[in-house]
Amino acid sequence: MEKDYQLTLNNNNDTHLHGGFIGLSKVVWNSEIVSNKILKFSHVQPDGTDGYPGNLEVVVTMTLNTKSSGGRIKGTFLSIDMSATCDEVTPINLTFHPYINMDGHDYGSALDNKLTIFDYAGYLPMDPKTILPTGEIVKTKGTPFNLDVSRIGDHISNVPGGYDHTFHLCGKSGFVVPAAEISSKDLKYRIRILTDQPGIHVYSGNFLNGAKGKNGAVYDKHSGIALEAQNFPNAVNMPSFSQLYFKNGGRIQEKHYILVFIVNFIFYLAFVR
């Protein structure tokens, strides 16, 4: 028997965003130092939190590795494994939401960073009011969304509000592949992100508004870029998008595996449902 669930409307009182008022980025997680290279976070969201059915148990494991990956990439790796279980049928779309400025956390604007999205089929246009995808996947050729070793600030003036869009990656389902690379303006420092997810969301820090950071730094608009590997946003309302549900109330694991190639960056940590 079908049942409707009303989620909390925490964005302009008409949209549910980032898991609601008590999303996973707004709670204190349990933490465990597994070893000098492994850190584990866990959290339980009780049934009914922000309108979601079921008791949701989430585990995030971060592993630091300085070895090369099959001889192809040498550097420092941060592997991020996300898994969740639930005792009811519920949608789930976990992601990792770091703010990155490859020119330094106190440099100011991150629009001088250069960004490449690898092997993608197009981007997902969004409704300007709800900031949710419309359900379309649009080719990027000849648009400001054609991101191929582009300075992020080169075309942002042609994107109303700034980048806040998901790109449809062409990687084979279940396989970890390169998704994006971001570098400092002099190309000295780079981060390559690999994922098994179908999309990567590019957010240009459009709503940063003077948050205080380390050593007195102030993070204003566009001070950081977020690259979020995930399933397509609003998939629950878009039949054409792949769905992420726990089926039949069972404890079926939905797992994200994200591998981040790190050279030199500082991030703000947030997990988002």
Describe the structure in your own words.
The structure is a single chain. The protein is an all-beta fold and 273 residues long. It is built from no helices and 18 strands. It has strands spanning 30-33, 38-45, 56-65, 76-86, 95-96, 99-100, 114-117, 120-124, 150-151, 164-169, 177-183, 190-195, 199-203, 211-212, 218-219, 225-230, 254-262, 271-272. The strands form four sheets. It has a nine-stranded antiparallel beta sheet with strand order 1-2-3-4-17-12-11-7-9, with no helix packed on it. Strand 14 and strand 15 form a beta hairpin. It is globular. The two termini are 25 Å apart. Mean pLDDT is 85; it is low at 264-269.
Biggest sheet strand order reads: 1-2-3-4-17-12-11-7-9
Distance between the termini: 25 Å
Average pLDDT, to the nearest integer? 85
Report the helical percentage: under 10%
Task: Say how many strands there are.
Answer: 18
DSSP strand (E) fraction?
25-35%
Count helical runs: 0
User: Could you say which structural class the secondary elements and strand pairing correspond to?
Assistant: mainly beta
Rg, please? Answer: 18 Å
* Helix/strand order: EEEEEEEEEEEEEEEEEE
Any low-confidence stretches, pLDDT <50, length ≥5?
Answer: 264-269
Largest sheet: 9 strands, antiparallel
Which characteristics define this entry?
single chain; 273 residues; mainly beta; nine-stranded antiparallel sheet; five-stranded antiparallel sheet
